[in-house]
Amino acid sequence: MNIIVCVSHVPDTTTRINVAGDAKSIDPAGVKFILNPYDELAVEEALRLRDKMKGEVTVITVGADNAKEAIRQALAMGADKGILVKGEKKDSWQVAEMLAQAIKPLNADLILLGKQSIDFDGMEIAPMLSELLDLPAATVVVGLTIDGNKATAEKEVEGGREVIEIELPCIIAAQKGLNDPRYPSLPNIMKAKQKPVQEIQGAPSAARTEVVQLTKPEKKRANKILKTDGNPTHAAHELARMLHEEAKVI
Amino acid sequence: MNILVYLEDRNGQIRKPSLEAISAAHALGGTVSVAIIAADTSALIEQAKSLNVSSVIVASDARMANYSSRATGRALAAIAREAKADVILIGATGRGKDLAPRVAVRLEAGYVPEVTTFASEGGEIIATHPVYAGKAQMSLKVTTPVKVFSTRPNLWKASKDAPAAEPTVQNVTVDWSDADFKERTKELVLSQGKIDVAEADIIVSGGRGMRGPENWTLIESLAGAFGAATGASRAAVDAGWRPHSEQVGQTGKTVSPTLYVAVGISGAVQHLAGMSSAKTIVAINKDENAPIFSIADYGIVGDAFEILPPLTEEIKKLRGH
Ligand SMILES: Cc1cc2nc3c(=O)[nH]c(=O)nc-3n(C[C@H](O)[C@H](O)[C@H](O)COP(=O)(O)OP(=O)(O)OC[C@H]3O[C@@H](n4cnc5c(N)ncnc54)[C@H](O)[C@@H]3O)c2cc1C
Ligand SMILES: Nc1ncnc2c1ncn2[C@@H]1O[C@H](COP(=O)(O)O)[C@@H](O)[C@H]1O
């Protein structure tokens, strides 16, 4: 089985986000970048399928040189080889285009992604790839079984789960719950350094969106915090009153 | 401006996020049409006729009895061309977020996901959505002639206005191929009889501070008094106290309810990522330095076990139960 995993290199959720001088992007100073957490699920699923059905796992990322760290992380988990697609990405459309260009010649049986990158939280790439590569896709997947050229995917939706039947080759975007990603072992981290990472140049068409502004949220909160002062019932009644009279939510 | 809104249905009913998208469309201004794509469309058309829209455009095929996102994407793109739509709005549900990027690719349109507010600048639409787990907001404009947006649920009021005149109904033929149906939804398994956090107007969530699953009756009683859904932090889910479907946050669900009550939840950034756009936030926590208080509108520093019972009683009274 020839499995492709698309991974992105994103700021760690716990890092402080500061807006850069252009007021359109983040200031990268002091920002720690990690392998997108949802992509760990995609890599883990790929490794399990490869170990069961034989084959190869190729990890692809679109980005600058430092995005190679995300590839190394996936290789340390156990993926076989990597491809770095270099190119400026101004929006998801360009990322999807460059991924499609890189994936098309590879004859993949299965393309795995995370459900979203935790930078722009877009959830755009998997459906876009589905259209660009002319392959069926299932997103927000918490369960996957493959039987020959048919797969059954469970998609998390509001209020429950959808059971989706899908033909291979296909695209699957992983949600938490699909599996428990492994931690790279020390020997595997060493081995990853020897694994091949090919670099290719992406050629996207024009971006279709333009950032006007990046701001920190300024929503004002009332911030009325009560103390119980030994009388929790009184505080509870006061809270209920405020919700009723001030916030008008009851 | 011609605006097309996709009508998502579940069990033959048009879903609320689609009605909210109609309100967002009216706020943008222009002529509003709606798209229905299904195997059996008659009941949906009847529902659509009572909506405040100019036209209802329908595509139908027996194969749509099982939802397929590729097939729906092709149909919605065909309808958008027919309607000469400048803007396509789709409620950002699980289904909508899979559909919108497809339609954007097919129409060579730019797309902005999970829009929380629209503004207009020199006649251009500026769409804003939260990024970096809600730690920042990004405002974008779409530079292509056709523009696609998904609108985050619960931020617009569902449109209930009656139409000035009955909308026209028009059918569109779509050149579906069998390849469009290589992915099909066979079944929808609903969790039983509970309000889902992703759809709820009010959510009461518990965290590790609740100490164990046996104490969730307190959370459920308060939720019952409010008519709310119950949610949970990841700590409560990872401990096996609550199902993952209730998890709010970055690796759980993103919610924008009118009221979010966090009980025994510290307010880690990954939790805030899922709920910081709630209209009103209430925190109950015994640690006055818990980060949740810094984004709360109202709160009590104290022991949840002492506060929840009288709070529940008082809410019941105020709601007339
Ligand atoms: C990649 C990643 C993704 C994550 N995704 C999510 C996510 O989607 N959702 C999520 O929630 N977390 C997520 N987390 C975990 C997150 O970082 C926190 O660990 C988690 O939110 C903590 O849950 P908690 O607030 O219930 O527990 P704690 O942080 O342990 O807080 C418990 C709180 O309860 C209070 N308390 C204790 N006893 C009482 C009492 N009797 N009365 C009142 N208050 C009391 C304490 O003061 C404390 O503030 C993620 C982490 C990572 C690394
Ligand atoms: N720059 C990128 N390179 C490779 N894959 C990506 C990139 N950005 C996003 N992806 C993949 O697409 C998924 C969804 O991302 P997004 O649509 O940006 O939310 C991620 O989980 C990755 O699997």
Description:
The complex is a heterodimer of chains A (250) and B (321). With 250 residues, chain A is of the alpha/beta class. Chain A has six helices and 13 strands. In chain A, the strands form two sheets. In chain A, strands 9-8-7-10-6-1-4-5-11 form a nine-stranded mixed beta sheet, with helices on both faces. In chain A, strands 2-3 form a two-stranded antiparallel ribbon. In chain A, strand 8 (150-157) and strand 9 form a beta hairpin. By secondary structure, chain B is of the alpha/beta class. Chain B has two domains: 2-181, HUPs (Rossmann fold, 3-Layer(aba) Sandwich); 202-318, TPP-binding domain (Rossmann fold). Helix content of chain B is 27%, strand content 30%. Chain B is built from eight helices and 18 strands. In chain B, strand 16 (259-263), helix 7 and strand 17 form a beta-alpha-beta unit. The longest helix of chain B is centred in the C-terminal third of the chain and has 15 residues, at 304-318. Classes of the chains: A alpha/beta (250), B alpha/beta (321). The complex binds flavin-adenine dinucleotide and adenosine monophosphate (AMP). Adenosine monophosphate (AMP) binds at residues 6-8, 36, 38-39, 42, 60-63, 92, 95, 99, 113-114, 116-117, 120, 122-125 of chain A. Flavin-adenine dinucleotide binds next to helix 6, helix 7, strand 17 and helix 8 of chain B.
